[in-house]
Amino acid sequence: MANRKVLPLEHDHQDENFLAAVKKIEDGLESLEENVPVYTPDLQFFEHLVAEQKQTMKKKLIRDLAIFTVAALLIVSSVLFMLYQLPAVFFILQGFVTVFIMAYSTVSFVKQVNGT
Amino acid sequence: MEEKDLIISAKRGDQLAFAMLFKNNYPFLVKYLIKITMNPDTAEELAQETMAKCVEKIGLFNGKSKFSSWLISIATNLYIDQKRRSKRERNWKAQEEAFRRMKWHLESRNEEWNDALSALGKLKDEIRIPIVLKHYYGYSYEEIGEMMKISPGTVKSRVHNGIMSAREELKLHGEQESAAAGTRSSR
């Protein structure tokens, strides 16, 4: 019991220091908030910023769509070429992809089970 | 027009609504960024990047939190990502210059430079940010965790350790002990 009387006092002292540090930090941040000037641009500046960003997004979308279309066309045409000109290679590839997907799924599943 | 209506219009692609939302929240955002970056120039640059990101992601804003909280969340992640990407050595000279400018701003308004700000500036970003969010803006550990994509427990320990480091830096422990010793000897 005698020991228990000392411990709370130490904690109180620590808490006081902790709260004093928090208070100092809050005061410091408050003085930053109040005294560092921030210039807010006019409405036109923000409108311009939004328009510019929308333009950039549009350009990015067009570029991504173009890349996707070209890649898709390349893949489809090469698969069709293989199917009609090299059917053996086509079926080997089909088999290889199926085995790969099954193996990958099994490994992922086993990892997940072992992990939990 | 209320903020809710502005957000609905912005989601429909209204540029003026976007601009009004940004204008209303700009000082809040920049002041938050000044507190976490300790650099007014970086804060302004990041604020503009945050707004650009916001235009891109407005469709994902669900309206559960305030718009300003959402902006803070985007800004925080942008800042952390930028820091992570540019793992170049910290430019101490530039940081020193930014500190001096902020000191000058405060002193020109007859405000003393608070030692706590220096102590806060010496902390790592991932520790300083939760301290600012918790003890200045009053967000809960859960909210900060969601903003920074870390667990509430991690936020809590970072805030606690950060305050302890700041306390050491401020020599609060020593001050109080010496004050106590002084009163003891005077008795």
UniProtKB/TrEMBL annotation, chain A:
Transmembrane segments: 65-84, 90-110
InterPro entries, sorted: DUF5345
Pfam family, one: DUF5345
Record key words, sorted: Membrane, Transmembrane, Transmembrane helix
Protein name: Uncharacterized protein
